[in-house]
Structures are given as C-alpha cells and as structure tokens.
Design goal:
CATH topology of the largest domain: Pectate Lyase C-like
Number of domains: 2
Largest sheet: 20 strands, mixed
Shape: elongated
CATH class of the largest domain: Mainly Beta
Bound molecules: 2-acetamido-2-deoxy-beta-D-glucopyranose
Distance between the termini: 78 Å
Strand content: over 45%
CATH architecture of the largest domain: 3 Solenoid
C-alpha cells in the first residue's frame, strides 16, 4: 500500500515536472517575417517576442534560414515577461538596411532590455556598416552609429555560435548585466572600420567569453568602467586593437575594474595585445586583480602595454595625470613576436604609480633583434624567463 502510494506520487511529480518544462516554439514566419531580405520583418519578430514573453513555459523563437530585414531599431523588453527562459534559435541572418540612416541615430540596432534568461543560439547579424564608415572617412559630420547587439540591465545571458558582421559601432555590448556566457562567437569587420569594437563590456559582472574569433577595426574586447569577475579564454584577436581594459578614468567619480582573467588568447597582427588604457584626467577609478596568462603574440605592435597617459585630443586633458590606480596585474607566459622594438611598456601615471605589476615567463622577440621594455612609475616584480629584460 505504502509503495503503491510512493509510486503514484512519483508519477505525479514526474508529470508535473515534464509539463512545466515543456517548451513552446514560435516561428517568426508564422508572424509574417519574410526571408527575402527585402521586406521589413521587425514587427514579426516583436510579435513572436510578445508571445514568448507571456508564455509560462520556456519559449523558443525560431528563425529559419534566409535573410530577414530589420529595417529600424528593435527592442526586446523583458520587463513584463512571465516566461522562465527565451531562446532565439537562429538559422538565418538578420540584416540592417544598407544605407546607414535607418539605424544610425539609435544607440543599438537590436536591443535586449531588462531580460532574464535569454539565449541566442546561432545565426548571423549583418549591420552593413560600410555606408557609415564611408561617411566618417570623408570627415563630414556623421552620426555616431548603432551598436549591433546590446544587452542592457539583463541577467543570465547566453550567446552561442553567433556571427556578427560589419557593425556601425560596437558589435556586441553588455551594459549593467549580470552573469553572461558568450561562446563560439565570431565577429568580423575590416581592420580600418572605425570604432567597430568586437565586444564592449561596461558595469557588468560575471561575464565569460570563450572560444571566440574577433577581427575588427577597434578593440577586439574592451572593458569599460565598473566591470568585475570577467573570464576571457581561447579568444583569437586580429586585426584589431587588442584586448583592452579601458579607456578608464574619463570621469572623476568612476567605478573600478577588478578580477579579470584573460587566458590562452592569440593576437595576430593587432595594434595591441594586452592593454590597460586610462585617460590622463582626474579620477578615483581603479584597476586591480588582473591576470593575463598564456598569450601568443604574432607580429603585434604593443604586445604588453599600460598607457596611463592616453589623451588623443590634447584639449581633453589640460596638463593632467591619470587618477586611476592600477595594481596587482599579472602577466604570465606571454610569448611570440612584437612588430616594434618596445614589446613591454608600462607608461604609468605620475600621480598614481602602478604597483604590484608581476611578470613571469615573458618571451617576446622583435625581428632578429632583442626587444626592449620601458617603465615609468611602475613597480612590481619579475620571475622566470624575461625577454626583454624587465624594467620593473
Ligand atoms: C573572480 O571571477 C571569477 C569568474 O571569472 C569568479 O569565479 C571568482 O569567484 C571571482 N573572484 C572573486 C574574489 O570575486
């Protein structure tokens, strides 16, 4: 009798579990999306989102093969969602209009706002940024441009095997997000396209970026103020400006950056490798507890760089020094080739010298000649293989 009751209870629980986990799928074609790349499919995507968001079951928004024009900026707002999770399963390409005006005045082309448990799996985003870059190259006044994909104030984000092409501005941006995992992401824009950062993080925590390939005209990954607990592993960068912590220290009151690990990355022909960059301005910001580990440099202009005197437009930094405190930064097993003689450069702030900079097993070559290192206001220690010789 008792065992019978237990069995019944188990069956009941199993049923409850399986029915609550049942997924519902919304195919964008059912809401009027067209895969011809010419008819605006924005409203179809929004209709699918509204239903997925209202569903009490985990929902899938499915985008079949084909090209889908998203002709104006699109926001998926998660504020009133009932669902526990929404997955975009994308086999096709979302494409922006080729003339830049349609999206360039917005901050983001495809925006997620206050979402929880959104996954993007597969697909391509093609922002067709070339017309805006052309405008910018004439020196005329042009709009700043839109980030291709942005998550704002969102949590538990997964981005899997997504491809992003030719953004107007950044390719992917996370702002004020918590717990995100990006993997197998592929980002591509020409080396001379302006401000097309691959992944830009700000005010976010718990972000992991794995197994990704980034080629852009600006930073492959840029880490702005207020980020913590970042893990970056197996990323290939180039062309581009490298992986940068910064620019920091623009504002007087600014949140710091801490606990960042960059592990097993390769830079190919990039302007920088591992860079920390702060404006030469007053600020109470900081960078601490950073580990750069197992990096391969292939013909990189500045493989290891701290630039605390960044001030491209002299007007921005009237005879100031950076107030950003940089401490506890580890460089371990960094090897390969430098495209310039100075392979290691710590150009720290006179007002807030760098402290506890640690080098271990750094082996960087420059052509047939020895590379050199250069230090200003930098203190720390060095161990193991040190080519070039440490100046700490
Ligand atoms: C640092 O970040 C990692 C994730 O990248 C996390 O697992 C770890 O707990 C963090 N450490 C501290 C002290 O917050």
């Amino acid at each position: 009798m008792v065992t019978k009751l237990v069995v019944l209870l188990l069956i009941f629980l199993l049923f409850q579990f399986s029915s609550s986990a049942k997924q519902v799928t919304y195919n964008v074609l059912s809401f009027g999306a067209k895969s011809n790349g010419r008819s605006d499919s924005k409203s179809a995507f929004l209709k699918a989102w509204v239903l997925a968001c209202a569903s009490t079951n985990p929902a899938i928004i499915y985008v079949p093969k084909g090209r889908y024009l998203i002709a104006s900026p699109l926001t998926f707002s998660g504020q009133v969602c009932k669902t526990k999770a929404i997955t975009f399963k994308i086999d096709g390409t979302l494409v922006a209009p080729s003339s830049y005006n349609a999206i360039s005045k917005a901050e983001v082309w495809i925006k997620f706002y206050r979402t929880n448990r959104v996954t993007i799996s597969g697909g391509t985003l093609d922002a067709q940024g070339a017309s805006l870059w052309a405008c910018k190259s004439t020196g005329k006044s042009c709009p700043k441009g839109a980030t291709t994909l942005g998550f704002y104030h969102s949590q538990n984000i997964v981005i899997n095997s997504l491809r992003s092409l030719n953004s107007q501005m950044f390719h992917i941006q996370l702002y004020a997000c918590k717990n995100a995992k990006l993997q197998g992401v592929s980002i591509s824009a020409p080396g001379l396209s302006p401000n097309t950062d691959g992944i830009h993080l700000s005010s976010s925590t718990g972000v992991t970026i794995l197994n990704s390939k980034i080629a852009t005209g600006d930073d492959c990954i840029s880490i702005g103020p207020g980020n913590s607990n970042l893990w970056i592993e197996k990323v290939v960068c180039g062309p581009g400006h490298g992986i940068s912590i910064g620019s920091l220290g623009w504002d007087v009151q600014e949140a710091g950056v801490q606990n960042v690990t960059v592990n097993t990355v390769t830079f190919i022909g990039s302007d920088n490798g591992l860079r920390i960059k702060t404006w030469a301005r007053r600020s109470n910001g900081f960078v601490r507890n950073v580990v750069f580990q197992h990096a391969t440099m292939v013909n990189v202009k500045n493989p290891i760089l701290i630039d605390a005197n960044y001030c491209p437009d002299a007007g921005n930094c009237p005879n100031q020094v950076s107030g950003v405190k940089i401490s506890n930064v580890v460089y371990e097993d960094i090897h390969g080739t430098s495209a310039t003689r100075v392979a290691v450069k710590f150009d720290c702030s006179r007002g807030k010298p760098c402290t506890d900079i640690r080098l271990k097993d750094v082996d960087l070559k420059y052509g047939g000649q020895p590379a050199v290192s250069s230090c200003a206001y930098a203190a720390g220690s060095a161990h193991g293989i040190l080519r070039p010789t440490s100046c700490l």
